[in-house]
Amino acid sequence: MTQPITIRRVPVPRPRLPELLQTVRTLAASGGLPVLPLRAGKAPFRNCARCTQNACGGRPNMRNAGPCRCAGVCHAWAAATADPSVLTSPAWMAAWRRAACVAYHPGAAGLTVVDLDDAAAVAWARKTLPATRVVPTTRGEHWIYRGAMSSHNAVRPGVDIKSSMSYARYLGPGTGTMTVLPDAVRALAVKEPSRARPEPHAIAAPAGSGSGECRHRTPAYLERGIAMAEQRITEARSAVHATVYRTFLAVLSTHGRCGCLTDTHVARLFAVAQAKGETLRHCTDAWTNARTRLGL
User: Fold this and answer.
1) Does the predicted model carry a pTM greater than 0.85?
2) What residues contact 251, with CB distance under 8 A and at least 6 apart?
């Protein structure tokens, strides 16, 4: 009879400033891990007045966003850095004094964190995923792999994937040897097709195209569609939530049924939406709602 898994709850008291800064310096110096402070509730600091609603254009490492010359801790995961001069600048020191904990941007460090939120999720991972470095969390475990991918919430009950365009709370070095990101984790981000929908089939090309292949697989056609979607979101001046949802819906209605969209395309759309002030959760919800509406 299989023994139930008991998750040891890890109390996380608010660190004192010297301890927190020592952790930050160690992470940035030893592994070049891009870090950022989180306030109470594991939330990033809000954008400063200059960066409100991303009026500054966003951080340089946010796709299709202009440079942000703000010295503050703005733009959530995109603010993460390993630069000691930034980490100890006056604006960042003010944030560290108010911080509840340290977070890092896994994707920028070439890492993926499988966030297992409870005992059931941990039991599933131990049966399904290759062993790797494990860090206990307050309710479950973080499994850390070498290799980056797009981030996804709720890929299965109690399981999130944190990598590119996301942040994970730093809770210690963990135990075990870190292994290469397996296909089993990447596959979690791939949604199964709806059983009510017929099997995918080739779409007839427009007359005169000279090709019988699906037009969506033509790189120029797909690239033009993604670029137009990015532009539509970028140029939104109001109702950003609604614009993002409608844009996602339009992209999926055109390109979502033949398998031509990749993680890279989705990451581009999410990056532009986040550059307009949307959170990763809002992006994920909008994408999921659009897929649901289309029966994907």
Assistant:
1) no
2) 225, 226, 229, 261, 269
